[in-house]
Amino acid sequence: MLDEHGYRPNVGIILINHKRQVFWGKRVREHSWQFPQGGIKSGEDPEQAMYRELEEETGLKPHHVEIIGRTRDWLHYDVPERWVRREWRGHYRGQKQIWFLLKMLGQDSDVTLKSDLEKPEFDAWRWHDFWIPLDSVIEFKRGVYKSALTELSQFIFSEDELVRIHKVATDSFTQAVEHSMEAGLKIASAMMGATNVITSQESTNANQNRVAETISNGPAK
Length: 221
Prior knowledge:
Shape: globular
Number of helices: 3
Radius of gyration: 29 Å
Oligomer: single chain
Order of helices and strands: EEEEHEEEEHH
Helix content: 25-40%
Number of strands: 8
Largest sheet: 5 strands, mixed
């Protein structure tokens, strides 16, 4: 089921525990991790689809969680053509998602990855700090993950906490840029030094060749 722009309606789920850590699932037989998500079936609204996907992918039922918030609008991402099924190419562009923030009310032991309802999506899971490193997310989903985490963070973090988090992130980025520039300058300096050594060596070799030629030919007449 695609909309008029080629996007498939979908839901994403950010599940947190009492430590404000997020459920992080490892895809079956892959080295990639992600949040639970899935398509909205015909006749479902986003909340109904969310509860169905939650049970299919984590084994959790509605009484195991509490809805804290959801994104106001659809968040879109485009899927690279090489990831699109051949029969969908030319029609399918990607996903549009409503993201839900859920609080875990049950126990970790309530999580069951082997579902009788659908083929398992994950073969391992763990709790992770809320601000997951985006470089661990497949590239074409990073923008949506950042938008969802940022919008939904207001439901569990105070304004002061968000200011501090933003400052830490900004400082870390600045330090990373400075370290990168410093490393680049060192490499450039080393390359310049190597060039000078080569030039000096070439000059020495040229002088030695001229001396050798003079000795071989004898003094000029």
